[in-house]
Automatic annotation (TrEMBL):
The keyword Transport applies. GO terms for cellular component: membrane. It holds the Pfam family Ctr. This is Copper transport protein.
Length: 180
């Protein structure tokens, strides 16, 4: 008996060209085989959720870095003097471990998203774009520091008249206060 002519089995159609295929497609592995429109819709929703998770992981990294930065700049924080006489403060090994784990999670999620995009499926790519847009909207809301007592980082708002521009740029995060 020849089992290769079995009509109930379906194979994954993979293409290295742009495509809009919905049935018999695979995402990441043969185990993620889409055989119906319902599973394809669920896959697109899952891809969008994965992209939202990527934005949330990126935000978690940024928030934790800001928390560690605030702890290191707190009054009474220990500092070390290097050979040049400069004072520096370092994260504790535990803080650095948490930073590393968060970075690995964010990188892993984003690599999975990249692999989904490499299927060249238009629906999957649109799902990633929608997910990153939703993730950016909800997970990375921009705020400008302004305290309850009316303090503003902008001197002209404090009546000092001088204009400042502060910019701190890091990988994947930018904190800027522009006053002119």
């Amino acid at each position: 008996m020849d089992m290769s002519s079995n009509s109930t089995t379906s194979t994954c159609n993979s293409s290295m060209l742009w495509n809009w295929s919905t049935l018999n497609t695979c995402f990441l592995t043969e185990g993620w085989h889409v055989s119906s429109r319902a599973t394809f819709a669920a896959s697109c929703i899952g891809v969008a959720i994965l992209a939202i998770a990527g934005e949330a992981a990126r935000r978690a990294c940024k928030d934790y870095d800001h928390q560690v930065h605030a702890q290191l700049n707190a009054p009474g924080a220990l500092s070390a003097v290097n050979g040049l006489g400069w004072s520096s403060r370092r994260a504790t090994p535990g803080q650095q471990l948490v930073r590393s784990v968060l970075h690995v999670v964010a990188t892993g999620v984003n690599l999975l998203i990249m692999l989904v995009v490499m299927t060249f499926n238009g629906y999957a790519i649109v799902s990633v774009l929608i997910g990153t847009g939703i993730g950016k909207f909800f997970c990375d809301w921009m705020t400008i520091p302004h305290s309850e007592d009316g303090y503003s980082p902008c001197p002209e708002e404090r009546g000092e008249g001088a204009a400042i521009e502060v910019s701190e740029t890091k990988r994947d995060s930018v904190h800027m206060v522009h006053c002119h």
